[in-house]
Amino acid sequence: MERHYMPVTKYVARWLARAEEDLQVAELLIKENRSANTICLHSHQSVEKYLKGFLAYHEKHIRKIHELNMIVAECSKIDASFAELHDDAVTLNAFYTPARYPADMPDFTMKDAKKACEAAQRIEKFVLSKF
């Protein structure tokens, strides 16, 4: 699915483009019914980049953190409606570290992967509506 954005700076556009790439990878793997751990990781990464793109759009400092609920809290300081994303952010946080580091890596199921991708799609739609 091709996504379109309102005019933004090159820096913000790069955040959004990378977010879109991550979500496209997750969506493609969902269609192919494979790589649940990778879907979970890319779903998380997509949301992290969409949220950080929103912060960049508002010229806020981008912290090098991966906890989505903390990034959502930063976005909520700009727009209180971002608090609506808290539950999806917490859901996606559960997939990030375990999907990234082999020592801790559980085997996520395709059900988990679909849940992660759907959460990422909801957040993508929400964030893009704010530009």
How many DSSP H or I helices? 5
* Count of individual beta strands: 0
Helix content: 55-70%
Corresponding CATH superfamily: Nucleotidyltransferases  domain 2
Classification by helices and strands: mainly alpha
Shape: globular
Low-confidence stretches: none
Radius of gyration: 14 Å
Question: How many strands, what sense, and barrel or not for the largest sheet?
Answer: none
How many structural units, i.e. domains? 1
The H/E string reads: HHHHH
CATH class: Mainly Alpha
**End-to-end separation:** 19 Å
Strand content: under 5%
Quick tags:
globular; 131 residues; 0% strand; mainly alpha
SSE layout and pairing:
Blueprint: H1 10-32, H2 36-57, H3 68-76, H4 86-100, H5 110-128
Short description:
The chain has 131 residues and is mostly helical.
